[in-house]
Amino acid sequence: MxxxxxxxxxxxxxxxxxxxxxxxxxxKIPMEALTAHQRHIDSFxxxxxxxxxxxxxxDTLVAxxxxxxxxxxxxYVDLLDKDEIxxxxxxxxxxxxxxxxxLPKFLxxxxxxxxxxxxxxxxxxxxxxxxxxxxxxxxxxEFSLPDIEKQTAIVDLLDAIDQKLKINQQxxxxxxxxxxxxxxxxxxxxxxxxxxxxxxxxxFKNGIAMQKFSPTDKIHVLPVIKIRELxxxxxxxxxxxxxxxxxxxxxxxxxxxxxxxxxTLSAKIWTDGDAALNQHLFKVTSNRWPKWFYYLWxxxxxxxxxxxxxDKKTTMGHIKRKDLTNxxxxxxxxxxxxxxxxxxxxxxxxxxxxxxxxxxxxxxxNILLPKLLxxxxxxxxxxxxxxxx
Length: 389
Prior knowledge:
Helix content: 40-55%
CATH class of the largest domain: Alpha Beta
Radius of gyration: 24 Å
Strand content: 15-25%
Number of strands: 20
């Protein structure tokens, strides 16, 4: 693959200037709207513009502050209307492709490459915990740029993966909404009056302080799920590791429900492989009830738990075991349970499978990306093989 070495500033504009008058109501995309390792942005709100970076469709947003950059928060803007100008956090660096030099999506794939990320991380300056990438380092970043035809072939291959990730993400969100709606519909119409407590329908296995279980080798290790990993839904290069020789009760596998009892309270069905559970999290399991039943009841009580955590007179809000006991659960009668299980069990199982598939797609993309950008993978031979088949 023929390429030429270019500076990013020669083929892209860093933090382009756009007209947006202060006080104008515009779409805002905060840092929280970026999902790590996901190209697609699917959340925003409207607010009066008072400052921040500005961008349009086709621009790439790169988190410039630690730990968002290290965690992989880089996304591509494609949710705006034609000619619409939006704004976002001052902690974004905006990259815009220069016409006829580099494709906008190819610029995005350059920005999520390990080489670019390592350059950005190493160029950070500032106090510990608030370090930022300097725009000058991004402008002077050098990389190999193929011609537009090769860029198009590379983008087409990777774009298919990211489009599937976007679809999976939306499907899972819709499935969760459907399951909650069906669950609430049952709550509004049930004839049952049999109550129990949340800790009676499921087992809440508390994690442990993983600092005591440092790995002694590089083979028998497990990554650690902390509140950060739970909120983002996956393990990354900044996650801690521990020895795999720990009790099974504090090991998490795909399909397990994990619930944080401290800090930012949230509950998710884990789909990023085997891991260990730290002390601020519960692994929630049940031998009596299917996964959907205890998952939806935990979600049902989550707002109450957040209120309890906010009222605690401690630095970090938290709930206690007695709060689980006080959380009331309505038990469906046999007919109601059968109807619910027929609908909700397949939905939750599909959500688990969708999460696992998305993680596999991200892994595949991350394997392909450096090979495609370096030219070590010959796309023409791939196309020839496919055509011959």
